[in-house]
Amino acid sequence: MKRVIFTLVLATFTAVSVSAQKTVDIPNKADKVVKIWDNSTAPHSNEESKDENLDKNNFVGNTSQMALYIYKAAKKNNTRQCVVILPGGGYSRVCIGQEGFPIAEWLRDEGVTCIAVKYRLPNYGHKEVPLEDAQAALRYAREHAAELDIDPAKVGIAGCSAGGHLAAYTSTFTADAEKPNFSILFYPVITGTTWQTHMGTFNRLLGKDRTPEMTEYYSLENRVTATTPPTLLMLSDDDLVVPPISSIRYYEALKHHGVKATMYIFPSGGHGWAGRGDFKYENEYKQLLLDWLSTLK
């Protein structure tokens, strides 16, 4: 009898601990912040037990709640395009302070409505969690198209590094009717092949005990089809974090399947330059990206 009572008390304590997990509010200049769900209300949980934390760069760790930071384009130059932005961080953090908000603010000023996403991390093996967050962000944009003054057929996705993997993941694993209309990938993690990838990203996505079969399945160059959306890839030749070959493999797969694709490899810049403001080719990459967006039907 005592054992039963102890078990019930322990179960109650565990439930209270999970529900009391703290989330963070990130300093931002967004027009609107929408909290979609957390581990207790989302379709799946990443089973994160620690409180969310925020460092001095506004990078978020231990994410257990998904939130959208909406930057709405002004009417005077509104292209009615929308970009859902997925910051990088190796699936260990969400670098929204660098690769989320600054990119969103810049594109908003150029007439493109943006949604920067604080997504839930996979926490070593919960691979479905970040995907369903990215898909929910796309769904929100289309369902609120009138409010956002966007065209629901012009909703794309952008991602940096591990966020680039998530953007390509969403572009290839989502049902055709719900896929983004275009993808922008900054120095993305694509393949799980050992010498061509960032190992930490794949370990956190699939778990430390991932099998070769799992690695092959989630290497996104293998998931491209003719319905993968038009894609722009931007990276640097001297990137020592995510080898450029990762993007090249994705580009080759896109062209093999007849998908509209453009890739720019800058001579230098390393990794993580999008949104940072000190990239040698800052003006060039921004103009090339805007030019590419203008070609989309």
Tally of alpha and pi helices: 10
Rg over CA atoms:
19 Å
The main sheet comes to: 8 strands, mixed
Mean pLDDT: 93
CATH architecture: 3-Layer(aba) Sandwich
Net shape: globular
Q: Describe it for me?
A:
- The model is unreliable at 1-19 (pLDDT under 50).
- The chain has helices spanning 2-19, 96-99, 101-109, 128-143, 145-148, 162-173, 199-206, 212-217, 245-256, 282-295, and strands at residues 32-38, 53-54, 60-61, 65-71, 82-86, 93-94, 113-118, 155-160, 183-186, 231-236, 261-266.
- It has a single domain, classed as Rossmann fold.
- The protein contains 10 helices and 11 strands.
- It starts with a helix and ends with a helix.
- Helix 4 (128-143) crosses helix 6.
- Helix 6 links the parallel strand 8 (155-160) and strand 9 (183-186).
- The protein is an alpha/beta fold.
- The protein is 35% helix and 18% strand.
- The strands form 2 sheets. Strands 1-4-7-5-8-9-10-11 form an 8-stranded mixed sheet, sandwiched between helices. A 3-stranded antiparallel sheet has the order 2-3-6, with no helix packed on it.
